[in-house]
Amino acid sequence: TIVALMTTRNESTATSASLSGRVVTITAGPTREPLDPVRYLSNHSSGKMGFALAAAAARHGAEVHLISGPVTLPTPVGVTRHDITTAQEMSDTARQLAKESDVFIGCAAVADYRAANVATHKIKKQANRDGMTLSLVKNPDIIADVGGMTEHRPFVVGFAAETRNLEHHARDKLERKGLDMIVANDVSLEGLGFGADQNAALILWRPDATTPLQRRELPARDKAALAETIIGLIIERLMTSNDSKQTP
Amino acid sequence: TIVALMTTRNESTATSASLSGRVVTITAGPTREPLDPVRYLSNHSSGKMGFALAAAAARHGAEVHLISGPVTLPTPVGVTRHDITTAQEMSDTARQLAKESDVFIGCAAVADYRAANVATHKIKKQANRDGMTLSLVKNPDIIADVGGMTEHRPFVVGFAAETRNLEHHARDKLERKGLDMIVANDVSLEGLGFGADQNAALILWRPDATTPLQRRELPARDKAALAETIIGLIIERLMTSNDSKQTP
User: Fold this and answer.
1) H-type helices in chain B, by residue range?
2) Quick check: B104 and B157 in contact, CB under 8 A?
3) What is the pLDDT of residues A195-231, one digit of tens each?
4) Is the Cβ pair B122, A42 closer than 8 Å?
5) Pairing of strands B23-28, B63-68
6) What pLDDT shows up at residue B129?
7) Which residue among B116, B129, B188 places its CB closest to the CB of A131?
8) Other residues' Cβ atoms within 10 Å of the Cβ of residue A47
9) What is the average per-residue pLDDT within B110-115?
10) What is the interface pTM, i.e. ipTM, of the complex?
11) Alpha-carbon distance B184 to nearest alpha carbon in chain A (angstroms)
12) Three-state SS for A33?
């Protein structure tokens, strides 16, 4: 039992050098899109999953860059943090870092749209108007931009937070955005996903251009444990692709 | 100097019974208006000012109800907290409590508008559309509803967070919403207002129907100190109005 205990401890706090010399960039948390100096559009992402991935990648020896929206989480040990507010700021930082990264993980819940015009002063409520319309324009699609890179393209992992048709949306997003792997989770399930400490996930990836998609379904577990599994799968993919490059 | 020190300490942690037997209801923090299960409209209110007011009112012996939007602050000692998310929920709770309150302080940054339709499932981005319009409808005007009460009307204190024309907007809001007192602050000033620990304020109130508005300008200070000053002014108003009732 002593050996068993030691093995367990060894696995849970595992440090390895399997990502030594690799640069991993991760986006995390929500973005906030201002409407005026006091109001904004945002979403319920807590950043926990992205921060757990950053911690796991750092434990495996990677140089980790974490691009984070406004969250209230401490920076994991050994991780370089880049704080941003809007999707445009996240995109600018991500484009810079992606070129120098071996792995890019888009875990942030990036706002799809921002206000067409951001008011300089607080918008006053109009007493005579019962409603108003807000004009929104599309934000940059960060993960699709990285997925579509033609030079120095990293291994690209996306996330899909869905409330229905999980696998359908995940397959569609992986193809459409040119991803190498996607982690999909159902955010409508009680106690999982946004803000929660646990997550269940369906992971899809394509071993090579001619092989059909592989899938792995992971039941609910701590975000730290899920992060460890995801980083493990990414390491496997990196090693396989290195092998195939070395033995043509 | 020992006496001076003791006086200082006595003032800063002052407990008095001047609000004993009085019910004070305070709204605090932002509201969040959902667009779909993951997205929402909100604002930068941290809740600090409202929580400081609740703590000050409790120290003066009041029965305090604090209606709070989503914030990350601990409940002050001796305060009953009512957690809400949307403006409609805040309005429902406020209408109930206002009838039984002697003082109502609207310190929350209530969203003026909410989505006309809240989507049950996550809204998918339309690949073929560069923009979208969001239809918003007006939320209940909580402070105006309480200000307009004709029976069991409490003493009503509003807040005005502005980025320009501070006094003009404050006077207008006090008149239009039927308030007894208004605390106005300029949220465009660096290090003051939303999220900050300090606040400067302009306080306006009308001693009685025939007297012109009184004004008091308070330079930047801790939100706790500002709260103490505001509660002190409210106690003065309550005592004066009691006196005038007793001596017609």
Assistant:
1) 2-12, 48-59, 87-98, 142-147, 166-176, 223-246
2) yes
3) 677 788 999 998 877 889 999 999 888 999 999 999 9
4) no
5) parallel
6) 72
7) B116
8) 23
9) 94
10) 0.80
11) 14
12) strand
Judge whether B199 and B46 are in contact, CB under 8 Å. no
Number of other CB atoms surrounding residue B72 within 10 Å: 8
Q: How far apart are CA B18 and CA B216, in angstroms?
A: 22
Among A128, A42, A44, which residue's Cα sits nearest to residue A86? A42
Interface A-B: count of C-beta contacts within 8 A:
95
Q: Read off the pLDDT of residues B34-68 as tens digits, 9 standing for 90 and up.
A: 998 889 999 989 999 999 999 999 999 999 999 99
Cβ pair A67, A93 in contact under 8 A: yes
Amino acid at B177: K
Q: Do B121 and A163 touch (CB under 8 A)?
A: yes
B12 token code pair: 């800063």
Torsion region of B29: left, alpha or beta (phi above 0 gives left; psi -120 to 50 gives alpha): left
Other CB atoms closer than 10 Å to residue B44's CB: what's the count? Answer: 18
Scan residues 122-181 of B and list those with Cβ closer than 8 Å to A: 122, 125, 127, 129-138, 161-164, 176
DSSP-derived secondary structure letter, B248: -
Question: In this structure, is the dihedral angle defined by the CA atoms of residues A51, A57, A60 and A62, taken in order, positive or negative?
Answer: negative
Cβ contact A171:A189 at 8 Å: no
Q: How many angstroms separate the CA atoms of B10 and A25, rounded?
A: 53
* CA-only gyration radius of chain A, Å: 19
CB A202 within 8 A of CB A187: no
Contact criterion met (CB < 8 Å) for A37 and B187? yes
The answer to whether A195 faces chain B, any CB pair under 8 Å, is no
Query: What digits encode the pLDDT tens for the residues A100-117?
Result: 999 999 999 999 999 998
Nearest to A163 among B111, B116, B122 (CB): B122
User: Residue A109, SS3?
Assistant: strand
Measured in degrees and rounded to the nearest 5, phi and psi for residue A76 equal -60, 150
User: B41: which 2 tokens?
Assistant: 């409209």
Active site residues of A: 43
Question: Pick from B136, B163, B176: which is nearest to A121 by CB?
Answer: B163
Structure token pair of residue B134: 């969001």
> Are A76 and A66 in contact, with CB atoms under 8 Å apart?
yes
User: Which of B154, B203, B210, B212 lies closest to B178, judged by CA?
Assistant: B154
Strand partners, B43: A39
Q: What are phi and psi of B137, to 5 degrees?
A: -125, 155
Look up residue B129 and give its two tokens.
């559309």
Q: How far apart are CA A186 and CA B95, in angstroms?
A: 37
Compute CA B166 distance to the chain's CA centroid, rounded to the nearest angstrom. 17
* Residue written as token pair 């990414």: A234
Chain B neighbors of A46, CB-CB under 8 A: none
Collapsing DSSP to helix, strand or coil, B224 comes out as helix
